[in-house]
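Saturday, quiet lab. Running sequence design on the structure tokens for the scaffold JK sent over.
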């Protein structure tokens, strides 16, 4: 099987390694089947798309909607390189799955506005599958609604032109969409389970997602929630696009 590529942008080693392990576990992949590039520390190398089965983009502490002058040189480089990558992937209708920061990157590239209108606190949100979502291979066999972990300062304020809405939420209307046939984005985290969200809370306690004084309450709100459905998106993506 040709490997998948995970493009990561988390500068914190613990968060980056935990994210990679989650994509491995829930994608049913081994380390030689999922190659990781940590884009926050190294430029994106030239890619021959024929070498890969598909590309995944994980989450990030970067906030895309802040003014350009407030972005670090690293963030500006990452955004530029991801934009150039999407310029290739979208016309090719190449298998792509972006989670959280990934969905925002895809939506922004397609002209959607990212802002704080539909931000969500760290929580287990109820995600509703649309009729189009129920017919999509990545959501095959999913219930009409399920819970998934969220936590984001920005979101697409509207569905990008040409995108198909696959899942929505009460607080955030654009939770998952598809572009063309093979490019996907999820606002929720398909890779996160309870252990993963608790680790993120500890790592990003001072990153502005919640008041650090309320960390114990935030942890308590997610500790006993059983999240088992959204991870199937990763397995479905791998099963659909793995190729020799």
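Result came back. Writing it out in full:
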């Amino acid at each position: 099987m040709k490997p998948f590529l995970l493009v990561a942008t988390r500068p914190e080693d613990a968060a980056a390694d935990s994210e990679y392990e989650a994509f491995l576990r829930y994608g049913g992949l081994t380390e030689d089947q999922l190659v990781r590039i940590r884009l926050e520390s190294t430029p994106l190398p030239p890619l021959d798309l024929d070498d890969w089965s598909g590309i995944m983009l994980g989450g990030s502490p970067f906030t895309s909607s802040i003014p350009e002058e407030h972005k670090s040189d690293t963030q500006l480089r990452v955004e530029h390189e991801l934009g150039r990558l999407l310029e290739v992937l979208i016309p090719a209708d190449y298998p792509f799955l972006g989670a959280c920061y990934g969905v925002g990157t895809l939506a922004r590239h397609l002209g959607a506005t990212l802002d704080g209108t539909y931000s969500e606190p760290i929580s287990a949100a109820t995600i509703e599958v649309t009729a189009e979502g129920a017919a999509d291979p990545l959501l095959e066999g999913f219930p009409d609604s399920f819970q998934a972990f969220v936590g984001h300062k920005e979101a697409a304020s509207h569905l990008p032109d040409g995108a198909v809405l696959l899942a929505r939420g009460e607080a955030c209307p654009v939770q998952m969409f598809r572009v063309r046939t093979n490019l996907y984005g999820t606002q929720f985290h398909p890779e996160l389970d309870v252990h993963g969200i608790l680790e993120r809370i500890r790592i990003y306690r001072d990153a502005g997602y919640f008041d650090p004084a309320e960390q114990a309450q935030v942890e308590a709100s997610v500790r006993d929630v059983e999240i088992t459905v959204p991870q199937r998106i990763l397995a479905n993506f791998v099963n659909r696009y793995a190729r020799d």
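Notes for JK: The radius of gyration is 17 Å. The helical segments are 13-27, 73-92, 101-109, 131-134, 194-203, 215-223, 232-241. Ask whether to fix the surface positions before the next round.
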